[in-house]
Amino acid sequence: MEEKHILLAHGSGGQLTRELIEKVIVEPFRNPILSLLQDSAIFSREGLKFAFTTDSFVVKPIFFPGGDIGRLAICGTVNDLAMSGAVPLYLSSSLILEEGFPLGDLEKILDSMRQAAEEAEITVITGDTKVVEKESADGIFINTAGIGLIKNDVEISPFQIRVGDKIIVSGYIGDHGMAVLSEREGLSFRTGLKSDCAPLNKLVAKMLQVSKKIHCLRDPTRGGLAAVLNELSRQSGPGMIIEEEKVPLREEVKAASEILGIDPFQVANEGILVAIVDSQEAEKIVAAIRETPWGKAAEIIGEVIPYPEGMVLLKTGVGGTRILDMPAGEILPRIC
Amino acid sequence: MEEKHILLAHGSGGQLTRELIEKVIVEPFRNPILSLLQDSAIFSREGLKFAFTTDSFVVKPIFFPGGDIGRLAICGTVNDLAMSGAVPLYLSSSLILEEGFPLGDLEKILDSMRQAAEEAEITVITGDTKVVEKESADGIFINTAGIGLIKNDVEISPFQIRVGDKIIVSGYIGDHGMAVLSEREGLSFRTGLKSDCAPLNKLVAKMLQVSKKIHCLRDPTRGGLAAVLNELSRQSGPGMIIEEEKVPLREEVKAASEILGIDPFQVANEGILVAIVDSQEAEKIVAAIRETPWGKAAEIIGEVIPYPEGMVLLKTGVGGTRILDMPAGEILPRIC
User: Fold this and answer.
1) Measured between CA atoms, how close is A82 to chain B, in angstroms?
2) Closest chain B residue by Cα to residue A146
3) What pLDDT, in 10s, does the model give residues A137-152?
4) Mind listing the domains of chain A with CATH numbers?
5) pTM to 2 decimals?
6) What is this model's ipTM?
């Protein structure tokens, strides 16, 4: 690492995040499970396969159109479990509160955690609460960790990705990130955007009902679709090609992206997933996704190609092809 | 709750913490496991009994004599698992970093996490890293969650406590809290105190080898011995009586307590445990504890009595008896 101090960009989900995690954070603990750097760690006991994951949530502002930090904290961890093919079982919830934080806001946040947990049919069974002095935190930070159970015939990971596989996205990209950013910048009345933040475990269950050939799942949170596709391509080996015109994108998100100067491919999502699936089963899987409340706008947006290895290409509307890079720089801090 | 805002005292481990947790935080999620409010939640799958726990660490300062926030974050969660009688298996580690935090400090903290994890023989298999702007956090906060496995013949909980049981403490009280506080107040050169922060899972394993009649275990962290004994007494029903002179207390801790005006019974510990055990087996268990590196100063300090129900009495050195109350007020913020 060239830097001597933590930069905001270290938390953005892009290039610098990857460097910090790989070179500094994972190194001391290097072990076969952690080093896979998946959304969930997977371990087995007595023939049972468990998924285990954690996320801290520091979104700003804590209330935004379509959700709040509490809903996000439940959905984010439920989705990390679901993306490993696990049925989410239990969550922990750990709060860091700033002295002076309004109890009424805390109650609202806890209530939306309760509601999201009910939607996901997951139980919060353990927790912790800490308080720090005024100005030692920013209102509230929430950590959730989760445990899920993976059926023995489910094997979902970047290492299952094969050349020829189809790439599916389950809905509109950019809604969450642009809604949070609009609220932060005081533009939400103009954009009218809402976060899509939702638990996706029932969507995944439905997908697994119709096909066993779902090779890889990922929720494109920090760094957006661009970061996730680049990570998957790098981890699995082959390249990917995406047709820009197939990627579901709301007019409002497009407009807000232009006002704010932000690439919607780099914006965090909290209510959609990327699925990489066997090409023969892709149509059937998309149809199943569209039947659920979370996937009405699902599309096949591209496929896995042999070359260029570990890279993502974007076929643009005007017929050209460019590289869709891993996001660099600060992108959007504190979007989740 | 009478208050409308979060106070520092809500995080102190005393009376207000209990109120906040019971009335505000647990209420929305009420379920049979969470409502037990134990150090670890316990759940079963296919005949296997698992423990699951989480803690966020916000200690100030982050480096103190005998440890740092990283060592604390591993030991705290390992100990919460061990206190439920579980063999700790896996940990998660989630960091919230303040922009500008020195990378060198982060590396030091991660290295002491690695070292503590090695001591405890536990593996960190998943994690998360977030960055917030300058002054939106205080350097670094760490959350760890942990999973452990409980053998089927082990049943450790406050509900196992019986009248007549002996109360054991495994070592000197107050070392951790007084060391952190001395460092914070710039007095560490005078007190020479060191935190006792250590993983206690091997101590518990040793205890379970010599006796199956260990009824309850608890590590007296926030709120110290006073908070833990009061909680256990309230949860289990009967009262407790403690002989003040039997409680292991270093002269230096006593002296520092007097300088700082703090009751060592209310100070957080991170390297000792309280065990409530069958009276017939107590001597054997204490002898086993003393043979380990973590328990040389172990003592039987009191016993469980039928009356007064749910209360803790302290037999003082001069022959009197007073109530050892649940701590109230701010006590010591950010000691873990």
Assistant:
1) 15
2) B145
3) 999 999 999 999 999 9
4) 38-150 (3.30.1330.10), 158-323 (3.90.650.10)
5) 0.96
6) 0.96
